[in-house]
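Reviewers of the previous submission asked for a worked example of the structure-prediction workflow described in the proposal, so we include one complete record here. The input consisted solely of the amino acid sequence. No template or homolog information was supplied to the procedure at any stage.
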Amino acid sequence: MRVILSAALLFGASLLSACSGELFCTDIFVSAVSVTVKDAQGNILKDARVAYSLDGAAMEDAACFSPETGGGCELWSTRDQPGDYLVRATSADGSRTAEQRIQVDGDECHASPESMTLTLQ
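From that input alone, the workflow returned the following structure tokens.
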């Protein structure tokens, strides 16, 4: 009987919170844009540098989402925020650059994840 009463109270509380209009966001990080950098032959460039601008703001470094044991990175990520991104990848020696714009949708809590591959020629 206590189990049924507890379940009914939890169900009622969830209905009240759903009706209150309050928004409850999770603490889970969702990268708005995941970036892979490749060379013209399709090889992943683990020593590339990746930066991005969100909604025209100053460029900032992307985070390495998939670090390699010996250094380098296979997958880069931006912050968890919707908006207009300009993403730029540069080779380790600075001689090759590629960039791409992408619009990321989302809600009050998280971005809707997008991915891109930038190819350095």
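The two ends are 69 Å apart (CA to CA). We consider this example representative of the routine output the project will generate in years two and three.
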